[in-house]
Inverse folding.
């Protein structure tokens, strides 16, 4: 079972791949939109990669609720 830290590190790598933001700067407190400049198209790409990496399904209506990286970590941790 992955820890929240491991999930965070993997999501940070995904954000780095999609957005070009250094994964070291991607913390649980960071807002996808406000801090990481993730637009809706990039969020779809991040979501697909998170779903593939963690074998979870994130319904479209829940993607909008993932405002911070920490929200995404919690979602993955609670739905694995």
């Amino acid at each position: 079972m992955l820890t929240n830290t491991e999930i965070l590190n993997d999501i940070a790598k995904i954000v780095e791949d999609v957005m070009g933001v250094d994964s070291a700067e991607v913390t649980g407190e960071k807002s996808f939109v406000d801090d990481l400049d993730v637009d809706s198209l990039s969020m779809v790409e991040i979501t697909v990669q998170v779903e593939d990496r963690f074998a979870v399904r994130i319904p479209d209506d829940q993607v909008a609720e993932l405002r911070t990286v920490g929200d995404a970590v919690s979602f993955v941790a609670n739905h694995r």
